[in-house]
Structure formats: C-alpha cells, structure tokens
Amino acid sequence: MRDARWALHTSQDEYRFIMVNLDSSRRRVRRVKQARAAARAELRSEMRRTVRATVRVAILDAAEELISRHGLHDAALVQIAKRAGVAVGTLYNYFTDRDALIRGLFEARRATLRPRLLAAIQAGTELPFEPRLRGFVREVLEAFESHRSFLKIAIENEHLKPSGSTTPQDLLAGVRDIVAAGVREGVIARDKAELLPLMITGALKATAVHRLQIGGGLAGDADAIVEILLEGVRSPSR
What we know:
77% of the residues lie in helices and 0% in strands.
C-alpha cells in the first residue's frame, strides 16, 4: 500500500514537472515567434526606407540634371518624373510642388557640399599662410566642380535658397582665420586684412560663375586667383 502511494505521489510530481516544462517551452516558442515576427517587420520597414530614399535620390538627381540644362521654368515636373523613372503621382508623394522639390534639392546638395567646404577650411592649419591659402582655394573649387550642376542652379536661383543657410558665413569665417594667420606671420598687411577675406570669397564665386558660363574646369584657376589677390596685399616688409 505504501509502495502504491509512493508511486502515485511520484507520478503527480512527474506530471507537474512535465506541465511546468511544457508551459516553459510554449513561452519560449512564443518568444521566438514574436522575435522573428519583429525581425521580419523591421526588415520590411528598412526595405521601405531604403526604397523611399533611393526614389528620393533619383528624383533629386533628375531635377538637378534637367533644371541645370533647361532652366527652372522649362524643366516640367512630368519630365523630371519621367527622367527619374517614376510616375508623376509618385513624385508628388515626395514633393508637394515645385518649390518643395527645389528646397529638397538645396538641402540635399548642401548636406554633401558643406562638409567638403568645412574640411577645406580646417585643412592645412600646420602650413604657412600662402600654401594653406592655395590649398584652401583649390579644395573649394574642386568641391564646387563636383557639384557643378547644382552650383549652376544655386547661382541662377539664389532667391529660392532656403533660409538659415550658414555655408557662406562658414566660408567667410574660415577665410578670415586663414588671413589672420597671414597677419600673424607678417605676410599680410594688417590694414588690408579686413577686405581680403571678402575679396577671396568674392573671387571664388565670380570664378565659379565665369566657368559655368564659358566652360572649363574650376580647380585650374586656383593658383591664378591666389596670385592675383596677394600681389596687392603683401606686407611692404616682405
């Protein structure tokens, strides 16, 4: 009789053990399924983001190409959509109108151009004034060259530039730092240092406009710009 009770007690313990482990197994399975479902959802979301980003880039590239070639008002949205390989309705899903498209183009290109200009400002700080200035001017013109189509649009439609752009101020501030180094070295006359940064940035813009109109590479003008500007502003003691 005692053996039978022991056997029954043991069976109940085994039953509880089995049920506890079965329930634990079911929870693990649910967690695995939930994790897999979450991973699939995240993958689908990432794919949608990638597709959306790819389509946006295609639209902006098409807009840049056609506007720089035909002008702002002759580049129809339907032609931009066709060039991007999307329907006009799809284009409107990304940009509600032409102004929104232009703003998007300015913002996207500024996001790639501005870091290059800032890098040009920060480069060569260990160099003497003139080599640093020459390197800066060349790197800025090379950055302009890499954004040639957008630069043409930006110059021709400057009134459409989004407010709050700090790139021109950054560029001018960087040139002032370079010129200040020239003053400290005694290369630049102190009484002429105030106007020199304005002349350098003005020359960069004027050169870009000139080359966009008549053709030719921008970077090839770097040394000539520096030589023209410095010949009249060197310290008399040098």
